[in-house]
Write the structure tokens for this entry.
Amino acid sequence: MDKHCIITDIIKSYASVSSGSVEALLDLVQFESIPKDQTFIKLHSRNDYDYFLLSGICRSYIIDTEGEDITLSFFQDRSVLTPNVARSFNARSIVNFQALTEVEIGTFKAKGLVELIKDREELRRFANSVLQKELVSKSNKEVQNASLNSRDRLILFRKQYKNFENLVPHAYIASYLGITNISLSRLRGNLAKDQNAF
């Protein structure tokens, strides 16, 4: 499918936006292919862009004070990455973003959208919807980590991110779930046994 059509579908999945407003935003977009494993947004680096994820899988992550790699979020094709305003402080990124497969992205200057939404209410609704979805996602993850055991968190992960276990390094999934890689391996084995019992 044409890249512009994919972005149009992404935008309209968040809000009802007229063709004219979609075209105005598309005029800002440039396309880029990111190779697998490349970190394309780096912690503390200046980044003034927002991103459409057309295809592929990526993640946001940090390295904690003990040097541990912690996955914060996963993103899959036909979505919008965490908005610039929610992943930056003083115009510097507060997280890393890494391509876990080869990805195709559409990038645009965050201030370009800010200018557009001054006169286009429907694009303001789109931007607000993206931000709201991001906040709800983060809130849901916090609640799940606090209220569900690791087995149920893995089951929920599988529903949300189908087939990721065949595409994403298990260490990243384990850190996202808040467990060790050994614990994830044990959980996967136990779930497989449970399924084979029926």
In short: The mean pLDDT is 94. The radius of gyration is 18 Å.
